[in-house]
Amino acid sequence: MVKTEELASMADCWSDVFERGRLIPPVGQTVRQAVDSHLTQSHGLQLTLSQLTAAHPPKETPEAEQDATYQLRVTFFDRTLQYFFGRTWKSTPQKMKNNKINLDEILYFHTSLRLPNTVLVLELVALSTRSDGSQQALGQGFTVLDLFPSKTEPHGDRRLNLLHGSPRVLLHPLLKDVVDYSDHLKAIHEAHVECVLKGHPAMTPMMHLLPENVLVSGNENIPGLAPSPTGDGLLKPMLLKMLPFTLSRLTICLQPSLEAFESQLLQLINADCQNTQQPNQEGPLKTVVIQERRLHVGVHNGWCFIDKPQIIVLEPISSGIKGRVDGVSKTSTQTKDSSAASSVPQTLGLRSNLEVRLINHQSIAVVFQLEYVFSAPIGRETMLSTTTTSRAAFLQCLRWAMMCPFQDQADWKGEETQLVLQGGSKPNPLGVMVYNSAISQNAAPIPTAGTIQDVIKFRLSPTLDRTTSSPKTTLRSKPEDSSRRRRSSSSPTPSQSDIQEVSSPESPQGPKLSLSQLTATSRYPPVSHSSSGLPWQQSFPSLLHPSLMAPAHRPSHAARSSSLCAHRRAKNKHAEAQPSDSTVAHLETEHQPVRDGTRLANHEEEQLQELPFTPVHEPVITVGMTAPSLSTVSSRSSMAHLFSAGFPDIVDSKGQVADVLDPTEPVPYDLHREEIDPLQENLLVFQFLAFTRLPVVGMGPEWPLNIYFTFQFYRFPPVTSQQLRLLNSDGARQKARELFPCVLSSINNDGTLNSESPGLQVQFRVDNGFLKPGEKRCFLHYLALHTMHVDVWDSDSLLLVGSTAIELKCMLRRGKTAVQALHEVDVVTTDYVGEGTLQPRNASNDPTGVHAIVRGRLHVRTGNVGSQADLSMRRTAERAQSHPHIIIPRELTGGFTGGSLSTRNILQLNVRNTAQAQRLQVQQECGQPYVGGINDDAVFSGENKKVDSGRRKLERMAAVHQKEGKTEASKATCATDGPKEPFWSNPYEDIDKAEGISNMLCQAITTPHQLFASLGSAEYVEFVLKNPFNTPQTVTVHSSDPELSVITNVEEWQYFKERTKTRTPLEKDMFHLEEGAPGPKVYLRPKESVHIPLKYQSFLCDHSMTTRGPSFLPQGKSSNVAKKILSNIVAAKTIKVSFKAETGDPIAICQVIVEPLPHLVDQTFRLYHPELSFLKKAIRLPPWYTHAVGGSNGETHICVRCSDPNIICQTRMLEPGEPQDVYLKVPGSPSPNVKTFFVMVFTDKWMAAPSQIWQVCVHFMERVDVSCITGQRSCQSVVLRGRQALRKVKCFSSHPQEIEVNPGGVFMLPPAGVQELQLRVQPWRTGTRFLYVNAVDVEQRQLVTAWLLCLNVHRPVLSKAFEVCVPVSGRGSSKKITYVNPYTSRRAFLLYSDHPDLLQFKEDKFQLDGGESYTVGLRFAPSLSAGSAEILVYVNNLEEKTEEAFCVKVTYS
């Protein structure tokens, strides 16, 4: 047995940490205020104290010495309640130099009290030594740091002025609730503290090791954290590993005996109750009985409990009898004396084992707390009071002990440990007052040898070392113990590494007994050792020493600190309620024997936890970030060659060349200057000048030969250019090392080159006719902050060459008439290469390396030419901007003039009512696209075409056709007015008179309104609804389309009012919602008018995709014309909102005409995936979202929506500081379909407008799996099937030097025919590779079929190895290798190298007779830098099978 040790000598290290970590908890009122504000989650913060400046430090007393040292002290303070709490942090004393103190201290803390009244008080103290040797501390001033001025996480630098006096002045009543103390206190001249306060999310995993509201430095000892090599363990904390241990054979011996101890305890309690009895009370006496005995077991690191302590129920156990021995016989009553109980010596024990998780650190302690549950009758006590439910329960701590197992492990491991139980008012980790009897009060403070003491005995052993269970465990508990051993078999042993970077798992909890569980009936009768007592007055006896940190009826174990358990008290508000009228339930759930195997089965079926791993798709070019080598500038000779081609200049309206801007320099953005620019019309010009080829592995030097571009500017329709040839002059070809740009020249439809000006020019016109009211500012923000994504395609193979991004900031004119800039950007693509083997089709792929490859450089010139805007269009925009969000029904001044109810009269009435709702779009049903086509100058314009005159002509033609009785009138009406209601276009001969009158009256109360809506953006309007009757009405609002809804949430209504600056009344609880009703209801007084908030928002759009390929030149058009693609926008529609009275008749109708507008695309993702299989991807949000999210209490709101309802798109809420991912699950399509959809990312709570819109293009291809060896040819056959028409097809591969397609030329593919293609793959790099093969219709330039080749490439078996040393900056080196023909017949051999740029052969092909030898000449290229490389040499036969492979290690020195 281990000898008993004293607390002070056994845990010196833990005691030091515990004494330093003692703190004052905050006021409970402040904690409840934080809980009511939903601030239950603690946030980590970092305070950096840089420097303290005191030009004239005050001297409070003449005794202050010149060589005094100074110290800064920091404490938490509650400004509202004028209360200091937490722990005072003190800096290292140092002398002041040049009136400055360089603090260079970093403080860390976490708190959930993110309230404006929580501040930090910083005090400057001068330390000096008195004559008697004691230290004197004199305050030199203080200041106050506001932590949460607006309930948000603070950021930024602070400069705090020092104030005269001491922090004790903050307790003055006049300074209560004062926000700015500088108005009441005098500041010290030129004395201030410089600091930086910011959030520190890295503290989140270690918050369980440190209590709230404690200021600590990075070098302080926090057991549980691994030491940091930098000395600051809290900057990037790393946790020590939790190790499982088992407590067994736990018993508690109370002196002189358990029966005497409990008898004395109850006598003292009942005597105290008698002393507190009121004189006027009468009736039988009431007794307090022991209801339950519990033990709290927790792991403490000196600062706090690492996890919530486990609660186990103890039972009286006799050493001579197996099983449980109750203190009172079941047949005895509670009024009998304790002598009726068994006289056998008893102890308190635990019949099963307890598992705890410890950290291998000398300051980690296991704390035991013995707690009794007492019960007392509430009302009038009778003979049956002890068994009825009219009893209240209360808890009290009686003894506690602690043990540091890792301070001296040899003393306890595998043996029984005995600890002394402590009592009294000595500080303890529980933070509660502990019972102290009269016997222990008279005893000596520190027990001496031979003194009888209360002890706890147990065995502590690692879980994996436990081979036998407790001898007192019943046979039924054996299966449970064996299952626990199986579950813990994978747990780490103490000898394993103690470092881990994830948060420690929670320890398995024992049975909990809270006051909410006191309503159950106890299975065991209460124990009473007293025959007499006094009435219970619901007051604590003086000898019980109740905890000062917890309310009267709250469990003391739940009060580790008030702020730390705020959310627990919020969930268990009954803990502070009145005493429960119940007895105490005896619960020992985890430690009871397993009966009928139910618990074991439940444990085996528990939910598995998901691992935090998700494959992330990294975009090629991230929004807001610069593409690789964006600032690359060509040489002067290259630029001279480029501009000698004669590109057209960008000139202003007067013919002057536009001012040239440098895209590499920052551009100042002045929004006000751009808005007041008199030249409101902008002509934005993009000139694609040239493309510089770069050497690409696996491609020829003339690749690509022909290209075309696809891009989208702002919300104009997407653009696809025609074919462009890369021209290379003869002079440029002579210089092999010089990479000259290839001038772009358009190709005519007949295949000849265009003889006009080189390059491609695309123009976009933006004026007041194109922009919506208030859209000018959004357009300017787009130019200043966004980039335009451009895809470069090979027009022959229809393969993607690469993508790039062009910054648009240089298109801001800044008051100039015209500006231009020349951009030279890298065209980048991604190559997916993995080091491991490729997984099967039904398995998840391993993480594959995504490598960015620069394919070339694109030369683009951008410009912006300003001009005067049309005044008439400006006036129209100004008129439309007067009340854009308020719909006011027009008053009807006239009535029905009589006449027949013919179609013509109703149409005329409809035309009069809808005169102001002019359509901006010709409907797709009539066969015309949305935006007008490109004119001869390739200008995209958003202004309305001269449709008014055409509209009038069509109306006159419709009237004539109707008069003549022709049926074509309906078609003309469709072409002019768009889609109408069904009764507008149908003849009215079959409609009866009553229905005609009803329809005409509905048109009379219909108010049209036009909305311009884009994808994902919410359009907000308010309809002024008036009750036309003299009686109150309950009006039901019904919308014919769910995308147009009524806003019933007051917060959402207020948000949209502030967003649209609509200054109209806001009314709470305005609508009444009923289940099953067609819409919300609103109550209207007679003749009353109210504003009904409406919101239109659509997440769906048309996903029709045009065929891939360059555009053709229309007849009669200019050569530099780009083809526009029908934009994927929301559909135009007409929505009717009816306001119906109680009778069901409408009193008003709002006809909302939705006009679609193209949306803005911020990012384009292009993915390749096998056909007919689900694509699962995770796209990580760029860092921009961290600055855009956050509510009033710091909560994050990120929502995503997808434009395709068949695609699953979602995101998960994570902890602050964690990266956010958007998860996609896309159903597959057959090859070569391209599925295009849009993902909208919202960062505001009410999803008013998307912060980002992504365009995702998924190319589905036929998957072909190939397993091969580097340097050796492998063949794979695929089948190409013909369709309905005869096609001329040619196959292209993404890596021609590694993939050869047979047939390689153009072949005829008959309708419904089958063509077998032979793919010959000869890769040169190991790992997993993804290559592409396209079958293209050469006449129509359309993609027929696409294949995705998934290569699993292995390294060959090496037969020989060589080492070569090549000098740096020399002429290279030549070596020889001898090769012998192993065959007996004559054979031909081929030589290859996987690095042809480093090694070349004298002859690539040779022939040998049987057994003949051949000397292979090797020529190693020189290197400009030192290093080494491994080069593989392949000797293949004519069938491209590898005969031998050599490895040559080249060292450049």
Topology:
Layout: H1 7-10, H2 12-20, H3 28-36, E1 43-54, E2 69-78, E3 83-90, E4 100-111, E5 118-129, E6 135-146, E7 157-163, E8 187-199, E9 216-217, E10 239-240, E11 242-253, H4 258-275, E12 289-300, E13 310-318, E14 346-349, E15 354-359, E16 365-377, E17 391-403, E18 416-420, H5 438-442, E19 455-462, H6 478-487, E20 499-500, H7 566-571, H8 598-604, H9 636-643, E21 659-661, H10 671-675, E22 681-693, E23 706-711, E24 719-721, E25 724-727, H11 730-734, E26 742-746, E27 760-766, H12 776-785, E28 787-794, E29 800-807, E30 818-834, E31 849-867, H13 871-880, E32 886-887, H14 903-913, E33 939-941, H15 947-964, H16 969-977, H17 982-985, H18 993-1004, E34 1006-1013, E35 1019-1026, E36 1033-1039, E37 1044-1046, H19 1050-1060, E38 1071-1072, E39 1081-1084, E40 1089-1096, E41 1122-1124, E42 1133-1140, E43 1146-1156, E44 1163-1170, E45 1175-1180, E46 1199-1202, E47 1208-1211, E48 1221-1226, E49 1234-1242, E50 1252-1269, E51 1274-1281, E52 1287-1293, E53 1299-1302, E54 1307-1309, E55 1314-1321, E56 1327-1337, E57 1342-1354, E58 1360-1366, E59 1373-1380, E60 1387-1393, E61 1399-1401, ...
Parallel strand pairs: 21-30, 27-33, 32-35, 34-43, 44-50, 50-57, 58-65
Antiparallel strand pairs: 1-4, 1-8, 2-3, 2-5, 4-9, 5-6, 7-8, 10-20, 11-14, 11-15, 11-19, 12-13, 12-16, 13-14, 16-17, 18-19, 22-26, 22-27, 22-31, 23-24, 23-25, 23-28, 24-41, 25-26, 28-29, 30-31, 30-56, 35-40, 36-39, 36-42, 37-40, 38-39, 42-43, 45-48, 46-49, 47-48, 49-50, 51-55, 52-54, 52-56, ...
